[in-house]
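Hi R.,

Here's the chain you asked about this morning:
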Amino acid sequence: GEYQPAIEDYDQAIRLDRDDADAYDSRGLGYYYLSLETEADADFAKACSLDRQYCSRLRPKNPATFGPEK
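And the predicted structure, written out as tokens:
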């Protein structure tokens, strides 16, 4: 799949800039699509803590509404 290489690219971006909210959010999406929910949740929370515009991906109480915007 295409998600693992993307995750590795975002790992590198995060190593270069630990405050890159977009990289955490994007890596979280990669984890999400690989069904790695714990990792996705951690990255979404980190992105949110760095920039409030990324808080929309935090898992709501209703998991059916979770995921990328359609």
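The longest helix spans residues 3-16.

Let me know if you need anything else.
M.
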